[in-house]
Sequence to fold (754 residues):
Amino acid sequence: MSTVSETPTLTTEARGAGHPTDDRTEQQSTARRSARTRRAGKRLVYHLAVLALVVVILYPAVWMLMSSFKPSSDIIGNINVIPETWTFDNYTKAFGGIAGISFWTFFKNSLILAVASVVGVVLSATVSAYAFARIDFPGRGVFFAIMIGTLLLPFHVVIIPQYIIFNNLGLVNSFWPLLLGKFLAAEAFFVFLMVQFMRNLPRELDEAARIDGAGHVRIFRSIMLPLMRPAIITSSIFAFIWSWNDFLGPLLYLKQPDLYSLPIALRIYVDQTSVSDYGAQMAMAVLALIPVLLFFIAFQRYIVAGVATQGLKG
Amino acid sequence: MRIARTKLATGLGTATVLALALTACSGSSDGAGSDDAAPVDTEEDITLTFAFWGNDDRADKYAQSIDLFEEANPNITVQEQFQSWPDYWTARNTEAAGSSLPDVMQMDLSYLRQYAAAGQLADLSGQIDTNLDVSGFDESLLASGTVDGTQYAIPTSVNTFAMFYNPALVESLGVDLPAEGYTWDDYFAWIEEASAAGADMDPQLYGAGDPTAVFWLFLQNLIQQGIDPFTEDGQLGFTPEDMTAWLDKGQPLRDAGATFPIDQVKQIEPLGGFTVNQSATEISWDNFLAGYVADSGTEDIAMLPIPAGDDGAKMFPKPSMLLAPSANSENPDAAAALISFLVNDPEVGTIFGTSKGVPAVQAQVDAMGVEDGSVDARVVEYEESIADLITETAPLPVEGFGAVEAEYLRLSEELQYGTITVDEFVEQWFASAEQSIPQS
Fold:
């Protein structure tokens, strides 16, 4: 927008520079004008740089969206972003599913996992965070340190022991291994996030409630929970997106194709050892992205709010 | 949650039934060893798990084949699962750690030794003639599923090397193809002659890419010299001198610039000199024909046997994939029956065609019903024409094969760019092989 409005000023300035004059007001206004021009110039450069950055960042997404409308043979080795021939075959194929299992089954599985993860994280992390932040139980420091320690433990170290445990419990090939940890507050990141948030809430509030005769349960439910809304929303968003995009967990624990989540199904279309159907994969990728995108658009203002409030109250 | 719990309950139920059935079995068979194969019980309900890698198309084909199997064996239910190639091995490796591999799984030659050595695969020898029919198999092909003499896997289908040529290009070069029974030296001389003839043409034509750049061809050449590329205990069976001798064969071609240039290969990847119709020949696996025809747009691509060594071509069929039962399977008999069905049943042959390679068993080849002149028919015809030249068994790759093969490819590119010499190539490759191949 600024580009359009500032262009005339630029030309005036160029003309003015060619005819110097000793009129003071003229000079002043020229100075003011040139300052404005400089600022406009800066803004122009800034906008151009940001636009260039947007193009670089959005290009893969646009490429994916456009490729999903191309015939499979045109996707690799063709640099043209706009399809030469538009086709909806890829979407027909993606909705057709794999080996008799419909796209909606994969979608439903992903959704169940994501929603249950959110519920699990919110239920368990809030309670454990309350204990860490407000209850002075023996060994609190040690337990807190251990919890933080699990954050530092690389996921790949625990894959195999975890698999063996779940396998011996007979829980492989169900959603349990993917959800149990979330209902037991094993996601230290969320607990830590909420503990930090809760520590910043004024203690006077609980003290007042205590004087009025409230116990821990009552304080947690009536005082803490409503105040923790931003932290809960932030955690929910992360839990949803992480679960939706999780690949390794479902790959290891879900054996039956009718339990597969979307990221697993997505990969079936591209196999180096046989023929790859890039078109169907692109279409599936677009379809898989839509829910996350909608979720993000609906809740994005809370992300900023949630993170910002935690940062400010130091 | 209720669904999951019901499933858990059914699972427990099945497990109890199985446990009871197993006790019943061992009771009635008078303490016979559990290793002995018995015909599959037709009464008890059996659930088998079966895993394979592949795309959606293969998943459909297996689903159809398994429906046929379940029809023939009403008491067996097969639960399939599939992943793409790299994910498949991530999942299997994790399961192997928990001893919970699927009852039957698709296996690749390069992983066979690793899984067999770790005791993850069941011995099929006892199942032969009871639940597993191998009468349709060629001896040397069947042997490619063995490790240290034990049959751990059954090949489903094969690929064999072929010398592909583009008759139109050969004609325009005006240099006659080497006569049948030609040797590697004949072939290298032919490439030099052909590239010289094509040097002034537009676009410039070449005889071939550098054949010494293909690791499997080096192995093939070793076999022709009577050297086993890999020893019984999974180590290298050749010396640095063997590799130097092979690479030296290509040196005159590289010096004369008579091979399709590497910098052009890099520009047109994933295509190659042969598929852009600038290189007249290429040696590769015969199932590449479909890809070559599709990529080059040239319908007329023909195949010859590969160059011979001192005592003949000594070619080997390479299993494109195998089926293996896991050692932790509770139903080894049913697992063997499933493998037998998938490799032998003619209707399964009709379903798959040559999508996995040419079927290992003739009955499946006959059932494919290929159209005359189609790509499938030409591959089958070629395999029949070279049947007499196939006298060897595919070498069983060492553990870490993927890494050493990739290193060979990388170094041969450097060699073609001229940044390293043959001696440096050999030295670097052996150094990296020592890292990649587990020392026993």
